[in-house]
Design goal:
By secondary structure, the chain is an alpha/beta fold. Helix content is 42%, strand content 16%. The longest helix is centred in the last third of the chain and has 19 residues. The chain is elongated, with a radius of gyration of 21 Å.
Length: 360
């Protein structure tokens, strides 16, 4: 089949979808508003419509003015499936194209933040969802928000993304003998709330010998977060890795005792899934997205947003009882990931739906 994705070309999610379905033998096109290297999608046909650079915090309404150019491109490509990733900017613009097999995938903040907090965004999403033939969301919470908007739920399905078990597994797991390692793989943006983790580390730093903290990711708050570590006397403990590839993430997670994700909101916390697959013990914020993967006290811990003392307490508790906690969590996490966290299995659902849409 011929699939045309309409999405932010620099996004890992976009590249993942495009490359995956191309690898299955489909003809894949990508329409995007930002120039990207052909090396990122070597066998995908990339079509760039120049526009102002996207703001990760939202407000990319200028994209809508490009819908006529998008429509002309789609008519020339003649795809069987036209699929937008991200429900607001690309999703709303794509809805104006009028393709009969239009799909929207919501990624998280487009629904859970924009859709909840802005009446304008909510109206735009309602319009886009009416135009879509199929809508995918990544969690029950996102499904519920979509229903609250008055969407026809017969065309909405929960499809978590999941991980690649070839890359993310515990086959090479080897914890260091002389260090206790905490790792975060979330980007350095406000929504991921990295100061929460840094301040908790400051509380426990003198109680855990040879503590090491990895902060893997990039973002606009890098300088601010580095300054905070200096202020709290953590410079020798905390390493800022910057942007890294998934193999570096997997290697580091396999040398990690505790993975921490303290985000304020998530659609499907793929970083958490990766850590679970690599057999790190997980501590995450008590939000709906994480409750779908972690049962507090069973296969990890859930902490309240901005409860720095609570996070520090859970870190200390895990450090003190690491072997017992890990032994209990490990088989549960393995089963959870196998049942619903494998990317290739979840994408089979998408491919099957594509075929159903075309045949109907």
């Amino acid at each position: 089949m011929r699939i045309c994705y309409f999405a932010f070309g620099e996004s890992f999610h976009t590249l993942r979808w495009c490359n995956h379905f191309q690898s299955l033998g489909h003809e894949v096109h990508l329409i995007t508003f930002v120039p990207i290297s052909q090396e990122a999608c070597p066998d995908v046909q990339i079509h760039v419509i120049p526009a102002s650079k996207a703001d990760v915090s939202g407000g990319n309404w200028h994209y809508i003015t490009k819908f006529l150019k998008v429509r002309r491109l789609v008519k020339s490509i003649k795809p069987n499936i036209f699929h937008s990733l991200y429900a607001t900017s690309y999703g709303v613009t794509g809805a104006l194209v009028g393709h009969k097999n239009y799909v929207i995938t919501a990624l998280g903040s487009d629904l859970l933040i924009s859709g909840r907090n802005s009446r304008i965004y909510r109206k735009a999403l309602q319009f886009a969802f009416r135009k879509a033939k199929w809508i995918t969301v990544m969690s029950q919470e996102m499904y519920d928000v979509t229903r609250e908007m008055g969407t026809d739920m017969s065309k909405v399905d929960i499809v978590p993304f999941g991980i690649d078990p070839v890359v993310f597994n515990s086959d090479s797991r080897a914890l260091p003998d002389n260090e206790f390692v905490i790792t975060s793989t979330r980007n350095l943006e406000t929504i991921y709330n990295i100061p929460h983790l840094i301040r908790a580390v400051a509380i426990v730093k003198d109680k855990i010998p040879n503590l090491k903290v990895n902060i893997m990711g990039f973002g606009r708050l890098k300088d601010e977060l580095i300054a905070l570590t200096h202020e709290l006397g953590l410079s020798e403990l905390v390493t800022f890795w910057g942007e890294v590839n998934r193999y570096q993430i997997s290697e580091t997670l396999n040398k990690t005792h505790i993975f921490v994700s303290v985000s304020l909101s998530d659609g499907n916390n793929i970083s958490l899934n990766e850590a679970m697959a690599c057999d790190a013990f997980c501590i995450a914020t008590n939000i709906a997205a994480n409750r779908e993967w972690i049962t507090d006290g069973e296969n990890g811990f859930l902490v309240e947003i901005n409860d720095v003392e609570g996070l520090a307490s859970r870190i200390m508790e895990t450090y003190t009882n690491y072997e017992a906690f890990h032994k209990k969590a490990s088989p549960i996490n393995k089963k959870v990931i196998e049942e619903k966290g494998i990317w290739a299995n979840n994408m089979k659902v998408v491919e099957q739906k594509y075929h159903e849409m075309i045949n109907n």
